[in-house]
Specification:
Elements: H1 3-27, E1 34-40, E2 47-52, H2 70-82, H3 93-111, H4 115-120, E3 128-134, H5 140-151, H6 154-159
Parallel strand pairs: 1-3
Antiparallel strand pairs: 1-2
Helix pairs in contact: 1-2, 1-3, 3-5
Length: about 160
């Protein structure tokens, strides 16, 4: 895997994610909670953002909203298409290592979202639950569990009653 390509993806996420989160939180101003998910396919062909105002992230596939931000799609597709040393269609240590690398990129980008974005929309950072998973496939639950722990504080996980 070309680490330079992953770094370009990371930089773009860090630059553009705050704007997308701001839009989502603006629509949630009158809500108590908001869960935001980064969902990918089994072969990591891009992410889309989804969100809901409940604490049931296990039903993310029923949420009626989604946002396909180009910075979460095409750069990741390019990485996957240029990564010849990983079979993205079957479970493997290499595929899981790729998933963990992507989760690390998302974690860094989420942590870099300025607090003022949460505050101007009536939230504290720990009011928002972030997670990532696959829409179907090999590592759905592993990505969900790992990302919830990586992306959130203990206080947030408890507020949403997530059991890992």
């Amino acid at each position: 895997m070309d680490i330079a390509e992953l770094e370009k993806f990371s930089k773009r996420c860090s630059q553009e994610l705050p704007h997308e989160i701001d839009k989502i939180l603006d629509s949630a101003k009158d809500k108590n909670m908001c869960a935001i998910g980064f969902v990918t396919t089994d072969d990591f062909y891009g992410f889309y953002l989804t969100w809901d105002y409940s604490n049931n992230i296990n039903k993310y596939y029923d949420w009626k909203n989604g946002l396909e931000a180009d910075f979460l799609y095409q750069p990741l597709v390019d990485i996957v298409e240029n990564c010849k040393d990983i079979d993205f269609f079957n479970p493997s240590d290499e595929k899981w290592a790729f998933a963990q690398a992507l989760l690390s990129v998302l974690e860094r980008s989420i942590r870099q979202i300025p607090d003022k974005i949460f505050q101007k929309n009536g939230f504290k950072r720990e009011d928002i639950l972030f997670f990532s998973t696959m829409s179907a496939g090999d590592y759905m639950q592993e990505m969900m569990d790992t990302s919830v722990k990586m992306f959130n504080t203990t206080k947030t996980i408890e507020k949403y009653k997530i059991v890992i």
